[in-house]
Hints:
The structure is a homodimer.
Chain A: E1 7-9, E2 13-18, E3 29-31, H1 37-45, E4 66-74, E5 82-88, E6 91-92, E7 94-99, E8 102-108, E9 114-117, E10 125-132, E11 170-171, E12 175-181, E13 185-194, E14 200-209, E15 216-222, E16 228-235, E17 240-248, E18 264-271, E19 277-285, E20 290-293, E21 315-318, E22 321-323, E23 325-330, H2 342-354, E24 359-362, H3 371-380, E25 383-387, H4 399-416, E26 422-426, H5 443-455, E27 461-462, E28 470-472, E29 478-479, E30 484-485, H6 486-491, E31 497-500, E32 505-506, H7 509-512, H8 528-532, H9 549-556, H10 562-586, E33 593-596, E34 607-608, E35 612-613, E36 617-618, H11 620-628, E37 632-637, E38 642-644, E39 648-657, E40 666-674, E41 677-686, E42 695-703, E43 711-718, E44 726-733
Keywords (chains A, B): Glycosidase, Hydrolase
Domain Beta-mannosidase-like galactose-binding (chains A, B): 25-173
Protein name (chains A, B): beta-mannosidase
Amino acid sequence: MTSTSADRTELEWLVGYHDSRDNKPDTFFPATVPGAVQLDWAKATGQPEYWKAENPKLFEWAENSYWTYKTNIDLSRVANGSIPYFVCGGVDYQFEVKIEGTTVHSQEGMFTPFELSLENHIGKRIQIEILVYPAPDSGDDSTHHSVANACSKPPVSWGWDWHPRLVPLGIWKDTFIEERPSVHLFNLSFETRLDENCQRATLTINTESNQPTKLPLNLTLRSPSGAVAHQSTLSLASGSASHTVTIENPELWWPNEHGPQSRYELIAELQSGDGTAQSTLKKRVGFRRIRLVMHEGAWDEPSTFPKGRSNPPITLEVNGRSIFCKGTNWVPPEIFPGIIDQDTYRPLLEMAQKAHFNLLRNWGGGIINKESFFDQCDELGLMVWQEFPIACNRMSEEDHYLETLNQESKSIIEAGRQHPCLAIWCGGNELFNAWSMMTDQHPALRLLNRNCYDLDPRTPFLPTSPVMGMAHGHYVFRDQSNGEEVYSTFGNANNTAYTEYGCPGPSDVEYLKTFIPEDELFPPQASGSWKAHHAFGAWGVEGDSWLCPSVIDHYFGKPQTLEELVKYGQLLQAQGYKFIYEEARRQKPVCSMALNWCYNEPWPSAANNSLINWPHRPKPAYHAVAESCRPVLLSASVSKFQWSEGETFVCNLWLLNDHHEAIEGGQLEAQLVFPDQTIQVLQWTYPEIEANKNLAGPSARWELPKCEQNTFDLKLVDTRNPERNSVYTFAYKKAEAKDSGPRAMNQ
Amino acid sequence: MTSTSADRTELEWLVGYHDSRDNKPDTFFPATVPGAVQLDWAKATGQPEYWKAENPKLFEWAENSYWTYKTNIDLSRVANGSIPYFVCGGVDYQFEVKIEGTTVHSQEGMFTPFELSLENHIGKRIQIEILVYPAPDSGDDSTHHSVANACSKPPVSWGWDWHPRLVPLGIWKDTFIEERPSVHLFNLSFETRLDENCQRATLTINTESNQPTKLPLNLTLRSPSGAVAHQSTLSLASGSASHTVTIENPELWWPNEHGPQSRYELIAELQSGDGTAQSTLKKRVGFRRIRLVMHEGAWDEPSTFPKGRSNPPITLEVNGRSIFCKGTNWVPPEIFPGIIDQDTYRPLLEMAQKAHFNLLRNWGGGIINKESFFDQCDELGLMVWQEFPIACNRMSEEDHYLETLNQESKSIIEAGRQHPCLAIWCGGNELFNAWSMMTDQHPALRLLNRNCYDLDPRTPFLPTSPVMGMAHGHYVFRDQSNGEEVYSTFGNANNTAYTEYGCPGPSDVEYLKTFIPEDELFPPQASGSWKAHHAFGAWGVEGDSWLCPSVIDHYFGKPQTLEELVKYGQLLQAQGYKFIYEEARRQKPVCSMALNWCYNEPWPSAANNSLINWPHRPKPAYHAVAESCRPVLLSASVSKFQWSEGETFVCNLWLLNDHHEAIEGGQLEAQLVFPDQTIQVLQWTYPEIEANKNLAGPSARWELPKCEQNTFDLKLVDTRNPERNSVYTFAYKKAEAKDSGPRAMNQ
């Protein structure tokens, strides 16, 4: 959000690889900046698309090379009184910067930007080189992401159950020459604070210039409508200025569906002698107060001796209002972060908003998103749970790693803290479980807590997810080891927040055809492209994940076509997710958070827990989840997926309500829908319901009739409020179906 | 541990009270420094002992007054080239220091020392005044310790279930004039680090002088035997010097019964022109590495989805060895901390060592102990779990409190971190329970974590006790609301650490007579002195705590004499504690810590959970606990306390072993001892047992014979290793005892 009035010049880059730090590349080829060295090499050498078939393997060599970028810069025409700066948003991952062959900057860490004054080179033509080291390697298992256990590069690049091993390197953020006036502003930061009633905001603004100056600094704060809310003139005689503004009855920033996403504009202008602005910085400012609070009844537990602690708080309270958080786990939208820009984020974030989400968990295995991600989350009311780049690893306790993490985390916090969407800082993913073996005492987590407290003390901090009370998983519709379905797994759980849970489903047929060679398409094999794209062997517990054909077979028999396989797989995913989201909502107020694993994906999966295929192609589950996340809906709780002819179908009816004002009552009609008949099972007239409260209704029961299909629907219809209607699909099994019905198709 | 070669002059003080900040006392009376204004007033006005009967009430007015100390200082004979300093270890709680009527220092917080150069007053006679403010008052309930929820003064002074309301004020630490050479050392601090195998120590030493100097600084490190382990000469040309020393195969500091408490001596000498030391500072240095580690099997849980986190680690690992922590909760040994000195601590700490304790939890409701406490814990091998002064309150989140806490916690950490005994920093007591309503997100706890990490990063930090896995309570032998005894309460529990549990018992008769007026002695009434000394109404859950006469009645009928009451009450306390300590040990390795509530007391209690009466008079329970904490002992697990004639007595036999080397096997003989017969119930030959492992043995069963007494003993005798013998006492009930036996005594 920072903009300046300075001139920017884009640069032309070349890149090449070499086998040791002190070598030079034999050949250079054109480089796209920002981007990745692998993509430049692929383009120059005519490689096939990295995202098709098993092509990621073509790139594995590249992570072990040194790479050198170079660019020539003409500083012979710098305007008088201007200073040229080399400005770089980030290089992935360890690198040196050389000017005319001399190293002037060395850095480990991709999330810390840097800039270099080129004042001493004015009038000359110079060459800048960026020497990129091979991907970090802690010496741990090099075939596993544990090799990233001593660096701050996201571990996902070494491969995950939905990500191939492909480790990007290179300049991944905007990099350019900027000419600035000899005296200019270089920092504008602020801290907001709301009083107990959110009726008074305090805005503390800090600015710095590159040198002490007598030029006046004009500060302006404009309200969301553009009116001037505050104006003042400060002195930068010491090189910095701090100023605190109080705003009565500020317009507040609210999460999606809770109110407007009001933002003010803060403008700092260094006024030159002629009265014009010679240096300007701007930021958006949102006022909101975010806390983690205990749920209703939480202090009553535990109730017996010996007495432990009460559950930690995980209910997000925004501007004094408890919010039920509906959302998802965000993963990198591309394998190569260098090619991500605001248009990569836009469709994904808009779909999240339309799905009634209000919270995205930015999972610690992936990158810290670019500024435009947070800008758009601010705009769309999507709160962000931001993890540091640590996941499923036991991180080093050595000084070198802690120093890198210290630098990187400070950069991450300083960039994120000024966004009203930033709701929670979190150390990383699943660090207190057996596969990570980190604990509350790990110095990396104590360091992160320290830095978050120092730099952003009023934003909640969690050491990891899950902590006490919370839970991750399960990740299958039906656990083949014990026959448990999501209906019982979640129906019997009692957690404060479900911050990860998955239901896998295949991608659609047309999509599969774009990256799986035709001869591999059907039937899917646990090898080749299906395996490379995560349909088989992706996750340890279930060997056939994420396609899970044995689960499909269990309910519907073995599919005879790819279309049939996809249809049933997607049905299970959609119905499973519907149940979990709604069940989590039914468990309010003990539960206050439902975030599925995962929202998106960085490349095409054949099957995955994702709701949206790469780059932004929604699966049927996306639409089902969006239905289940409406603020107000009729909902049914059931105990299982498959029902038999003659069995008594039972469902418990609910009105789920997350709306922040009381809602009017209505009339629910439960219908069982079969191909040849619709049975009205029950009517329930329900009263007005207060804000953010659910209402448990009656149970409906009906003996299931004979039917020729293998599914039936439960429809919940509100005659007065049709926008609350819901529909669920279940598997149907004939009473004596040994020689007919779907299972017969396999024989 | 810091000593200097400078001259110290003690001061004569007067003190008086006044009703507003700007008044002066009408009269002054002599003051003892260190001490407390209340004690000075009591002495001057001939008040009765504060610790008798209901006398604390006499002192309540004093906490609402201002108090002014004054002293005259003659600086006319300061040695040439010397600088006099006014040095004060601490003033309780908020105060101003005036020199000749002008305020030169203001402070809130009793744990931060200060010193003032009097260089400008050399040659004069001056008056120094210390104006002490009334006790802090947050505006919360003034009859409850919640009034301390915005200050760093220990809340215990406002009254607890074993502490009267009596809020000390005044100069509570050593305060004197010190003449120092014009150039002198004023800081010597260090940081120790051991490598993974504890075979190499790194000692980083920091020293500062009051001004840059060309005088050489000689650093000497002497080994525990006195040999020179390192010597070097450094420059203080910049006013400070830092030096790192590596020591191969250092002699390690170990907890009690795990090895020697080796300490090195570090000497910093500023060498004057004539080669003598003109300024010397000395510190003791202990090398040990302390970590909190997971217990065996901890990573296997939880095992099902949705999956939470594993329990946090609470097993103390010292120098690579897991230690089962046996210990107790330490509370202030006096109501007035100003009168505490090393001789107050000495007998208590020696008894802790003799009881085989290795860990003291310095409970957050009380004071931070003086330096001599930590020195003696270092010497005796007693590890310290040190809490900050927060307990059972919901602390303020306001800036003013956080700033005070920041200052006070830094002072506390800087003083404590250089002691090898300092094993755990902890935010405070029971903050995550309903009566405190603080959470992991509270800024005070994040601040403490930050300061501990910044100043002492290699010592574990806990936000509070209990956290997940740990537990506090119960505090009664038998819960009258549900009939549960300690035998089932703890036998059915499964916690990682029992960091508080109590069994109340009365004090002995001779002791009771010293503070309860004769006419109140028997029968005890729930009023007057018995109540003031915590026999009744002390704790909410049990109205008759801590004397608990209804529990005594339940087993033995109503006592007819004070002697009988005390005998049975003390028996229950001793037997209850024996069971809990041994049961916690049986639950190893899941459990690794057993700390009863509480060890000592600040004034005489009529009944209390304490093991030792004020000031250092052990109760029978102390000796029972010491037996149960022997490194190796025979132990019996039973399900209840009272057994009936003809009933089959059942006990499970164990060999409890915390020893750090393998122990030889033995032969256990279980005997039931009645007045007229000893029954040999079972013999068990057990093998050699590896270090720090228990061995579960057989169960013994025996039908109980007729007996004329109301108790019987279970003796466990090891014929080869009599030092492992144990004995337990149980209540006995006759089969048809309606008209005879102990209960008949009440009729």
